Amino acid sequence: MMTRTITAMAVALMATGTFAQAQDLVINGEIPITTRAPAPDFVPAFSEVISGWEFRSPETQQLETDDFENPGMLFVEAAREAFSEPLKEGGQSCADCHESPEALAGARAVYPKWDEEHGEVQTIEMQINECITERAGAEPWGYVSTEMDNMSALMSAVSRGMPVNVATDGPAHETWKQGEEMYYTRYGQLELSCANCHEDNYGNMIRADHLSQGQINGFPAYRLKNAKLNSVHDRFKGCIRDTRAQTFKPGSPEFVALELYVASRGNGLSVEGPSVRN
Amino acid sequence: MRNHIRLAAGIAALCGTAAFASEPPAPSDVVYTDTGAVEASLTGQPGDAASGAAIAGDKSVGNCVACHMISDLADVPFQGEVGPPLDGAGSRWSEAELRGIVANAKKTFPETMMPSFYKNEGYIRPGDAYTGDAPSGPLEPILTAQQVEDVVAYLMTLKE
User: Fold this and answer.
1) Residues of A with CB below 8 A from B111's CB?
2) CB-CB under 8 Å, A16 with B127
3) Phi, psi of A160 (to 5 degrees)
């Protein structure tokens, strides 16, 4: 009887949008992932920041606990092969400068970050293209492209479990402020900001979607919905489009700023990509 | 763009005269009370509650259920929880208040997340519906004047 009451209460809680308290996420039985962390001071609305993993169904959550079940890892493996292939005919490969993908562990956790030489904040995709064009003298990859999304997933995979730690001060601060302003701007004919859904309403259902905090520590994300890797900027593009707005382009200065700001809201969560989401 | 605005202003002015007296007011000409209600029907025609129910439940039209639970539309799956349930809305609010909330809820609740369904300007980076592209011409309100009236008529049937 008691059990039945508790079950009923749990169902009622779920129905009102309270998400299930998840068990801990450990990948391959050996990489513990921090899915809840104290919120940074500049996010007064939250006491905790929470990975999108906690908002997904137990079945979807399960897929991320084992690399043999995580479809995103197929793309990581493809990038591992590409890592040692010449970037142009007879040219250098990533492996000519970087001993192994694992030698780049930790990089993902601090991007986007200020690039002194170029005088701008760079995302990891921009850094990858800088390597390809300036070091290897090859043609850049598309900002959102199979090669780029795969390599971005590899960079995440080798940093999994490390805390996101992007800098919001110093020379990056101006860009960070731009991102913060965008986060609270109500775009489009629906006049919706990122904050309307992901700060004020996380945990609630909006039609069939269970709203998360919009954290990006799990990107690129393998979505069951479209069965591919989804980059951060591709997701931003879709979100702003869905406010009936003229959206921004992946790789645009606006999305770089927004990525820095949103990433900083998840400082303390683990790098988790490639995550599995619905 | 400026020509469009002038043309729209011209049309709006004509609408104010007897020549097009039956045309609905432009969104910017709708008169709201201090508390955000709209006393006059936008069309002068009674709303159709059955049509309003369809608009409220249809993802491509009003999609009210994206954010609001409506028990009366139990056959529409995946009702949201962002806004308050609309059960009993017709008892809690007057028709004029509901018309104001549907047309532009920000006149009633200044900080609300709810989109304004009878509004067509004053946006930041409005797009061409859900394409993500810039609009190719003047924006239409999300719902027509008659659709607003239909939704209001439907909400008025949701009694405690």
Assistant:
1) none
2) no
3) -60, 135
Chain B: nearest CA to A13, how far in angstroms? 12
* CA–CA distance, A51 with A34 (Å, rounded to integer): 8
Task: State the ipTM, two decimals.
Answer: 0.87
pLDDT tens column, A226-235: 999 999 999 9
Residue A21's Cβ-count burial label (10 Å; 0-12, 13-18, 19+) is exposed
B75 near A CB under 8 A:
no
- Known catalytic membership, residue A239: yes
The CA-based angle B66-B69-B74, given to 5 degrees, is 100
Residues forming a β-bridge with A223? A228, A277
A185-204 burial string, b = 16+ CB within 10 Å, else e?
Answer: bbbbbbbbbbbbbbbebbbb
This prediction has a pTM of 0.90
What's the whole-number average pLDDT of chain B? Answer: 90
Closest by alpha carbon to B21, among B44, B47, B38? B44
Check if the beta carbon of residue A216 is closer than 8 Å to that of residue A267: no
> Residues near A179 by Cβ (< 8 Å), separated by ≥ 6?
A257, A258, A259, A260, A261, A262
Task: Find out whether B127 and A241 touch, Cβ atoms under 8 Å.
Answer: yes
Lowest mean pLDDT among A3-7, A197-201, B49-53, B107-111: A3-7
